[in-house]
């Protein structure tokens, strides 16, 4: 049994003079543990999502288990609406809210560098939009000093304003920092989750199953395929569809940038590109998809029932949605206005939005996709192991 193995390791450590370190749970973590004990006795929601099958493999819930379950939760709300112990019952079981509070805490706890973890609490809508506007204004002032903010003989080529090497020098270090910071955080998360999820290594079947769950957003179907809940008791697939628009729109825009990079350095084909080139096709489709997805998620987020999640994280959610929308909208506007006198102004607006998005990626809602993927990978590994909780377990 997992608990017996843990006690054995602790006994060995104590016998060898090693300290026994038991993490002290925060109030949100303790609340998840309390609710999971109640849910483990009921098990009515066992077929809803990955959280409850993972829960049934445990008799107690340590910090690593709680972090794991919180990031498995997709906040679909199905368990809240099905629960007989939900508020106003005295047990006050609200799994979506409890999990959301711990998820927000894990983003900050696993952030790198640790000192910047508090930015998760401060990365709100106002800060995100203000950062994008401030960066855009800075670029506008720089361009205006050259007398080219409006009009000018640019002939649709924005590299005459900002040379390619300058843009690479601005964005490459930020992008590399984002990758490094998120990589450091999720690596630490993975190392702490692995012993709590059987300790078995990742294998190809598990990776394939988790990848499919991520790409399909499997657990936003409510467990029955009819969707999750948003503002009332009605089932809806809206969140799943708008998440798909956003997710795949982002991937297409990233693919457009990657292909353009190959064009530039491998083939010597320099931007700007136009239809029907592959970078432009990917960028236009991705940009439109991002606008549709983020507009839909914004509407759903504003209308969602307050019991469905953690209200304190709403500014962070809306800030990320707003930056994604501004990035896609300004990118499409830049393409459509490339042959107009507004090119320089639109370019500054777009670069400001992109820079703000990059700067906040490691400390905003983007992290939830990274941590949730890691949790789904560990779930796919764990479910293939023998269940440590058998008949007669205590």
Automatic annotation (TrEMBL):
InterPro entries (UniProt xref): Citrate_utilization_prot_B (IPR012830), NarG-like_sf (IPR036197)
Membrane-spanning intervals of the chain: 125-145, 165-183, 245-266, 278-298, 318-336, 342-363
Annotated keywords: Membrane, Transmembrane, Transmembrane helix
Classification via NCBIfam families: CitB, PRK15033.1
Listed name of the protein: Tricarballylate utilization 4Fe-4S protein TcuB
Gene that encodes it: tcuB
